[in-house]
Design goal:
alpha/beta; 13 helices; 12% strand; 6-stranded mixed beta sheet; Rossmann fold; two-stranded antiparallel sheet; 337 residues
Amino acid sequence: MPTVNHRDPEPDPEPDPDHEHVAAAELDDLIEEFRSMTPEEIVERGFSVQGTFDEIDDPVLLGPHGLPVRTWQEGYPYTERMSRDEYEQTKRLLQIELLKMQSWFAESHRKLVVLFEGRDAAGKGGTIKRFMEHLNPRGANVVALGVPTEREKGEWYFQRYVRHLPTAGEITFFDRSWYNRAVVEPVMGFCDDDQYEEFMRSVPEFERMLQHAGTIVVKFWFSVSRREQLARFTIRRIDPVRQWKLSPTDIASLDRWDDYTRVKNEMFRRTSTEHAPWTIVRSNDKKRGRVNAMRHVLSVVPYDDKDDAVVLQPDPLIVGPPEVVSADLGESVDGSA
């Protein structure tokens, strides 16, 4: 079993151009070899994980020279990650607001559905965990559905998701959602063209029906740069407690970056509507992504006693609509390289 470094993450040191170049070149090489390499072979190439002991922090991939691999800076508008102290203080205040929001839903009998979509390893699950951290589980839950059963494959496509929609006063977070049919399924060949087109035609009306039934729908796309995604995959490969997060579909997606970009842009074009718009979260810095996702949800829900000094508006460099905030770090807003 490969060894990992159990120290807490420290602030990134000043970059050494020579070392950074070597680490970047080594990481780029892994794209071609990742499938066949064992965790031990990756470790032998000099990679290790820092910060695996304290789950409050996110792990950091260290390159062959022992320096953090700084792939998170690729196309990112900040040169330093949000500090732990700022993150913890901000998160706590926002989580207090989330509890106020939850009480408002319970009292108003409204419903909230939040969809978390994005490329593999983009930070969806970690953000959901922070949303749920202090909410009352009797009124909030997470839905993360597996592969459809044979029965579900024969049902109306939305049927398996409808079973998990919230009732009056509840909040539901979908860790991937019905938008699997817009992105993952066409890229991986899990649906045919007719099924895809029927979904794209009907999903705006489906979401309009949810809104008319008293449901607020928030749709997040978590963006991550290509090299940062690979760095996170590498962490999952060599850290024993995270290996379960790396699926065969994740690995297969490495060669399909452009295919995902194409269907993602088409999804935004056809399904971002006035009643259920898409919101991009640039999550190369997971902490910034999380707190700004919280701010976005809190800003769109008209709950009582909102503390505007805490909620603020989301950082427009991190969160915004697809036509304003690039949905893939390192590419332009229109999706070109």
